[in-house]
Amino acid sequence: MTTAAAGSPRTYQVRTYGCQMNVHDSERISGLLEDAGYVRAAEADEQPDVVVFNTCAVRENADNRLYGNLGHLRPVKAKHPGMQIAVGGCLAQKDRGDIVRKAPWVDVVFGTHNIGSLPALLDRARHNAAAEVEILESLEVFPSTLPTRRESTYAGWVSISVGCNNTCTFCIVPSLRGKEKDRRPGDILSEVRTLVDSGVLEVTLLGQNVNSYGVEFGDRYAFGKLLRACGDIDGLERVRFTSPHPKDFTDDVIAAMAETPNVCHSLHMPLQSGSDDVLRAMRRSYRSERYLGIIEKVRAAMPDAAITTDIIVGFPGETEADFARTLDVVREARFSSAFTFQYSKRPGTPAATMDGQLPKQVVQERYERLIACVEEITWAENKKLVGETVEVLVAVGEGRKDERTGRMSGRARDGRLVHFATGDLAGRIRPGDIVHTTVTYAAPHHLNADGAPLAHRRTRAGDAAEAGQVPRTPGVLLGLPTIGAPAAPPAPVGGCAAP
Q1: Are 278 and 169 in contact (CB under 8 A)?
Q2: Closest C-alpha among 239, 325, 339 to residue 288
Q3: Which of 132, 301, 384, 460 allows an S-S link to 125, with CB 3.0 to 4.6 Å?
Q4: How far apart are CA 366 and CA 278, in angstroms?
Q5: Close Cβ partners of 39 (under 8 Å, ≥ 6 residues apart)
Q6: Listed range (15-24, 253-262, 300-309) with the worst mean pLDDT
């Protein structure tokens, strides 16, 4: 018995936790399921036929969050025979069979290396009426070869690599996603062109360490070349990337950013700590002087560059002097934004067993001081933009108060969040359109533009958003079984195929 009515397709829902890599993996999960005959459940549907959790393992509370959500679904599933629950992503790669042991109502567990197996595993679990756990130790197929249901009409993620060759002592990612695997530049550019052809205006190149891109095929300047190649794609208006590692940052990348018109002058470069002693303990193979030197070169080439970062507070052994050095670097770097984290012990990482684990109250107090320091700086940097004209790519879901305030929201070219008044254009501006407007107010985390827009350009992305369309990039299902009627065979062609 299934929850879907006889003859109707099974519905699915994907719940995502974690970083941009996970968000993009979820787009692939959706694409796979839809290619296999599933349809996305309506937002209000509380009983989809399949619920997929795409998990993260970076934070300490990841486990509790997953098992809490699984617990909430247990009575729902009990009332709806045939409903299936799947768990994938980094936490699944880490916990493996423990998930089914702790939550025996889970039907499928799959890892970071075999996303493409999900439709077959769901089929097998349903047929055998038993849980299917499949975790591979190495990549089965590069994820970008899988079909993908994009969530945005105007912006798309494009993976250039997966995995990481670094050995940061606080990070569990390399053990869960494996060694770095690079895509060939031609494959990446082909995917970018496919997205642009469907109306996408902005792409973000994704990798655990984009600066080491090319290590597999022996070209340490490959990433800068890739950025320049993106500049030759007609219709591609914005190029971003995340995340670079300071140890691999080369001057040619800065030159490519400065000299390629569609590469945005925004840089997210994790600092983690301003203390050289802590960086050494983290096994981050750069020091604060090197980090600040990169920022100095970036600003020399692009004075308008907005630089954001990640910072961890309370790493084992961090002293008050170490923390003070982090504050010093923050003040010198003048970040436009910072993602701040309290150190989270992750079993399986070297840092988890280090001496000098700090009391929670010490970490919390330092964390609050860091936030105060960061916000003082980001507010001051944002105030410099009051009176300036910014180009905004209109977005969905960026402004939680938009409906109440009558504004719309989007991102400036430098990545800053802008809430803007629509003036006489209310109802005519769509997500994916481009607006030019003047900043009237600055806050630590956003800008407001309360005057009428200076210009509005309708785009193909806006047309797609208005029509309710989302881009889909095709993939190869690798002979995996699908649900429903098979696709029609291709039309025959005369003669032999060309080699």
Answers
A1: no
A2: 325
A3: 132
A4: 15
A5: 9, 10, 11, 12
A6: 15-24
Whole-model pTM?
A: 0.79
At 3, list the tokens. 């929850």
Opening angle at CA 410, ends 406 and 414, nearest 5: 145
Q: Of 11-25, 87-101, 161-175, 236-250, which one has max mean pLDDT?
A: 236-250
Biggest CA pair distance of the chain: 76
Task: Provide the pLDDT for residue 489.
Answer: 33
Give whole-number Cα distances, 494 to 228, 488, 499, in Å. Answer: 41, 18, 14
Please list, in sequence order, all residues whose beta carbon lies within 8 angstroms of the beta carbon of residue 273, skipping any fewer than 6 positions away: 279, 282, 284, 311, 312, 315, 318, 322, 325, 326
First CA to last CA distance, the chain: 48
**Tokens describing residue 136:** 């591979």
pLDDT of the residue at 483:
34
Reduced to 3 states, what is the DSSP secondary structure of residue 264? coil
Q: State the virtual CA torsion across 236, 238, 243, 249 in degrees, nearest 10.
A: 90
Length of the chain, in residues? 499
Placement of tokens 């993602």 in the chain: 339
Q: What is the 3-state secondary structure (H, E, C) of 409-441?
A: EEEECCCCEEEEECHHHCCCCCCCCEEEEECCE
Interatomic CA distance for residues 263 and 202, integer angstroms: 10
Query: In 3-state terms, what secondary structure has residue 404?
Result: helix
